[in-house]
Write a structure and sequence with these properties.
Blueprint: H1 5-17, H2 30-33, E1 41-46, E2 51-55, E3 61-62, H3 67-79, H4 100-104, H5 115-128, H6 132-144, H7 153-161, H8 164-175, H9 183-194, E4 197-198, H10 200-206, H11 225-238, H12 244-250, E5 255-257, E6 262-267, E7 271-276, H13 287-299
Antiparallel strand pairs: 1-2, 1-7, 3-4, 5-6, 6-7
The chain binds glutamine.
Length: 307
């Protein structure tokens, strides 16, 4: 008999939901602060086509930094190995929106998942696409099997209004000749990519190619097998910012978080998970999301970095 994924998700959902809520819903983007901290969903898409879910898996939420995973993939497709001239692949050990390391390291962002690196990636997309925002929306829509995806204009406006820190990072890259486009245009695109709402089910679906050696279940190649391995490596070492060591210790899967409270985690060869719970720990990662993934990883006997 095959593994009973549904009862695993149900059990994990019930166990985690019964614990008191820890952490705090992100409020530095005011539009995100309005989200109810009790929301909680889980979805698992398998490479054999089955999908399982528990809780509020069909409720859209702000993908925030999970968008950085998909823009990284788009940039890998466009630039190949040259992308790594623009951004590194070392964990930063600093907060996702930190500026300190950039000063020491000539404005070369440590990795594509901290804001500096994600802005460098979005800058790279703006250089190649006439309509970068459209390209990002279309790419995500094609991966999660939707005709159209929309931006939450409230969240986008809120990010733009409170985006001075991200603009500062972008200007810093520009001062180091690592940013060939207009700062306002790139930060606008970046804020808008973060303000896309998707559900756990859609996000698990969208990231499934990463569990499937770089191809979708329809057989469309998104990344080469080597690029897929590289993306998973960057997720494993950098996907949860300065909380990544603890996350790999507890969960051990390549993952990407967002301050909307979502985390995507990949089970290579098996499937793709997405959890959503808005209250965040001190590092800006979903507290319950990590608890849930830890229970799932323990049940599946995940060996960190191997599965
Ligand atoms: N839009 C957010 C920001 O730039 C994304 C951060 C995140 O999800 N970690 O601050």
């Amino acid at each position: 008999m095959s593994y009973d994924y549904q009862s695993l998700l149900d059990r994990v959902h019930a166990t985690v939901a019964a614990q008191p809520i820890r952490g705090k819903v992100a409020d530095y983007i005011p539009a995100l602060a309005r989200v109810d901290g009790r929301r909680f969903g889980l979805a698992l898409a398998l490479t054999d086509g089955r999908v399982f879910s528990a809780g509020e898996a069909d409720e859209p939420f702000s993908i925030q930094s999970m968008s950085k995973l998909f823009t990284l993939v788009m940039a890998q497709r466009l630039y190949g190995d040259d992308l790594w001239q623009r951004v590194g692949r070392e964990p930063s050990g600093t907060a996702f929106n930190s500026l300190v390391q950039l000063e020491h390291e000539d404005g070369f962002p440590r990795n594509p998942f901290i804001n500096a690196g994600a802005l460098a990636v979005t800058n790279a997309l703006v250089s190649r696409y006439a309509q970068p925002e459209r390209a990002i929306l279309d790419f995500l829509a094609s991966l999660c099997g939707r005709k159209k995806i929309f931006i939450d204009e409230d969240v986008a406006r809120s990010e733009e209004q409170h985006g001075d820190r991200n603009r500062a990072i972008a200007y810093f890259l520009k001062a180091h000749d690592r940013f060939e486009n207009d700062v306002a245009e790139v930060t606008r695109t970046y804020f808008r990519q973060c303000a896309i709402p998707l559900t756990c089910r859609e996000l698990a679906q969208a990231a499934l190619f990463l569990a499937n050696n770089g191809t979708t279940l329809d057989g469309a190649r998104v990344l080469s097998p080597v690029q897929t391995r590289q993306t998973l490596a960057v997720m494993l070492t950098c996907g949860l910012y300065d909380g990544v060591g603890d996350f790999v210790f507890r969960v051990g899967l390549p993952a990407k978080s967002g301050v909307g409270g979502g985390i995507i985690a990949i089970l290579p060869g098996v499937g793709s998970l997405c959890v959503w719970s808005p209250p965040l720990d001190a590092r800006g990662n979903s507290a319950r999301g990590i608890d849930a993934l830890e229970l799932i990883a323990a049940d599946l006997a995940v060996v960190p970095g191997v599965l």
